[in-house]
């Protein structure tokens, strides 16, 4: 068993993975120097569970509602201005109309019951949504098209507000989080913050859980250099096949929870709409789905950390997950979570001084012989091994992983595609929240059961 397998299997202690975002910000004066001699700070988001009292839950609900109303009022004003052919309302004028002047009216006087920073941050979210939309329309923003902002609803599964330093939130010595006009929230700390947070977001998910998401600034933490490099072929039968022969079995978290989810969905369908029992059933379904997502995220964090720790360079194939999600394998593709896993590899490589590269999705890694370079014809998915005319016999996934490694090394040496140090590393897909019972039952390597 190689180093990756040994470290991955023997790591049995559960820890709350709080790293979910890595956004490099280049600052002239700082103490961090990366592998290219560039000074670099990074921002991370640390996520912790909070337990508000019933009274604090009411205050948080009021803050969620006020932020939602300000967001919707501002969006409505800009839509009306566009329909009437009026100029685009600037951010300053919009803030005056929907916050300052609205508080003086009888219909919106209750906006003064919450922190003004919460309302300002709601407008900041709207402005960010508009900027992303305009950048997508003009072609400045790459990737999928971004839709214009939509109205927020009190029935949305996720409610969130944000406090900045201007609100003077504070982490007290007793471990509680003090928020203006809400009080001191009990926080379940899994690790200390590396620096003073610049902002904190309070999030309520569909299952009724509350989280505090801190944004902190820290420096790179480069790991000791190693000579090991690996190419990874992602799949469904095996979640990941390494070029060194390691095979990680697919946990299939959603499939394993399908029976329980089916029962809960059936119970929900029998409840009368609008009843209290239906609300309870909805929350049970949401908790079951949250447990699946948390377990998958925890497992991917541990696997990605082990891969980055043991390899100096990591190369993966740039899969079109959106396209694969439209096929008959959609449920299995979304259950695998390839996009979130590769995102974790990318930002962790940037943080720890490793090399990460994506190989072009049209590269024939499966059909190419890793020994002679011959490209054979298309193969069906049920063909797991094949023989090359040169006499070599290949395992389909292992051969693809070897070719991905070779292509990634070629791109790096020729400077054609692989990004040694990306300028902007995308954040991971969601908040990094784990369940204390999730990690101990989800480690899987070839020959070792998942549960």
What do you see in this structure?
The protein is an alpha+beta fold and 451 residues long. The chain folds into two domains: 3-16 and 227-441, no CATH class; 51-219, no CATH class. The protein is 37% helix and 17% strand. It has eleven helices and 15 strands. The strands form three sheets. Strands 1, 2, 3, 4, 5, 6, 7 and 8 form an eight-stranded antiparallel β-sheet that branches. Strand 10 and strand 11 (247-249) form a beta hairpin. Helix 1 (3-10) packs antiparallel against helix 7. It comes from Micromonospora zhanjiangensis. InterPro entries: Cas12f1-like_TNB, RNA-guided_DNA_endo/Transpos, Transposase, Transposase_put_HTH. This is RNA-guided endonuclease InsQ/TnpB family protein.
């Amino acid at each position: 068993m190689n180093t990756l397998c040994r470290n991955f299997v023997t790591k049995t202690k559960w820890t709350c993975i709080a790293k979910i975002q890595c956004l490099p910000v280049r600052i002239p004066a700082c103490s961090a120097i990366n592998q290219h001699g560039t000074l670099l700070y990074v921002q991370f988001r640390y996520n912790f569970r909070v337990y508000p009292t019933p009274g604090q839950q009411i205050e948080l609900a009021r803050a969620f509602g006020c932020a939602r109303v300000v967001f919707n009022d501002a969006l409505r004003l800009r839509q009306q201005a566009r329909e009437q052919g009026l100029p685009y309302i600037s951010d300053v004028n919009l803030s005056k109309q929907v916050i300052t002047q609205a508080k003086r009216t009888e219909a919106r006087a209750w906006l003064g019951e919450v922190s003004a920073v919460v309302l300002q941050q709601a407008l900041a979210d709207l402005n960010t949504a508009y900027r992303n939309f305009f950048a997508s329309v003009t072609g400045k923003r790459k990737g999928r098209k971004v839709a214009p902002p939509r109205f927020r609803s009190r029935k949305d599964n996720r409610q969130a507000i944000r406090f900045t330093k201007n609100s003077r939130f504070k982490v007290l010595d007793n471990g509680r989080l003090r928020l203006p006009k809400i009080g001191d929230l009990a926080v379940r700390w899994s690790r200390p913050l590396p620096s003073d947070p610049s902002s904190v977001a309070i999030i309520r998910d569909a299952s009724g859980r509350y989280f505090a998401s801190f944004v902190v600034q820290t420096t790179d933490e480069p790991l000791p250099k190693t000579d090991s490099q690996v190419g990874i072929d992602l799949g469904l039968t095996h979640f990941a096949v390494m070029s060194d022969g390691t095979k990680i079995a697919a946990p299939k978290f959603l499939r394993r929870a399908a029976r329980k989810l089916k029962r809960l969905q059936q119970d929900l369908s029998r409840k009368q709409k609008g009843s209290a029992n239906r609300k309870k059933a909805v929350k049970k379904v949401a908790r079951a789905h949250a447990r699946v997502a948390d377990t998958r995220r925890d497992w991917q964090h541990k696997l990605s950390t082990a891969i980055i720790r043991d390899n100096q360079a990591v190369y993966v194939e740039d899969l079109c997950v959106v396209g694969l999600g439209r096929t008959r394998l959609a449920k299995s593709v979304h259950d695998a979570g390839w996009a979130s896993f590769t995102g974790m590899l990318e930002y962790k490589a940037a943080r720890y001084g490793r090399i990460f590269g994506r190989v072009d999705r049209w590269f024939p890694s499966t059909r190419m012989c890793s020994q002679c370079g011959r490209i054979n014809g298309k193969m069906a998915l049920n063909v797991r091994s094949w023989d090359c005319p040169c006499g070599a016999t290949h395992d389909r996934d292992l051969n693809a992983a070897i070719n991905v490694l070779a292509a990634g090394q070629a791109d790096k040496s020729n400077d054609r595609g692989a990004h040694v140090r990306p300028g902007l590393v995308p954040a991971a897909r969601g908040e990094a929240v784990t369940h204390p019972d999730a990690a101990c039952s989800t480690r899987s390597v070839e020959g070792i059961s998942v549960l």
